Amino acid sequence: MTDKQIQTLFAKLDKTNTGFINVEDYRLALKGYATNEAIRDQISQMDEDLDGQVSLEEFRVSMNKAMVPEPTFVFPESVSDIDWFEVFVHYDKDGSGKLSAQELRFMLQDMGRDLEREEVIQIFNDIDRDFDGVISYSEFIQRYGKPSTRGSIDITI
């Protein structure tokens, strides 16, 4: 991530236009994606001088640490052990609360399914029940919320 991109992201997170990101800014930006406790933890991890807010420099340092490539999601051996909410959030890379076809493709690849483009589109269209071009969590959980009777993840068409 370039310095300009970090500055742009910081400006978007600084909802109160104070030049700092505080708990309220972060809460507004995450719009219900994290608990108050998680938000406080994230702010405290970035807040080097312990003043309760994150400066641009603190944010820059935190973002540079975070730019280490993210590991592939490791699916457990047993389908019953899969936390589907965790899977959904992991693959929702843009934080939109929806999965795009590309995000679904990455998930399927990490599940060991190297599918052709047309197969991914067909699976995507099967899950996207309201045909809005994205997969909501409720649509996702309808498809993947229960283990298949064969004891493996059923991603057939």
Any chance you could write out the topology, listing elements then pairs?
Layout (H helix, E strand, L loop, with lengths): L2 H11 L9 H8 L5 H11 L9 H11 L17 H8 L6 E2 L1 H10 L6 H11 L7 E2 H8 L13
Compact overview of the structure:
The chain is built from 8 helices and 2 strands.
Explain what this protein looks like in three dimensions.
The protein is an all-alpha fold. It folds into two domains: 3-66, EF-hand (Recoverin, domain 1, Orthogonal Bundle); 79-144, Recoverin, domain 1 (Orthogonal Bundle), CATH 1.10.238. It contains eight helices and two strands, in the order αααααβααβα. Helix 1 packs across helix 4 (56-66). Residues 147-157 have low confidence and may be disordered.
Number of domains: 2
Structural class: mainly alpha
Chain-averaged pLDDT: 82
Give the termini separation: 37 Å
Keywords for this entry:
mainly alpha; Recoverin, domain 1; single chain; two-stranded antiparallel sheet; 157 residues
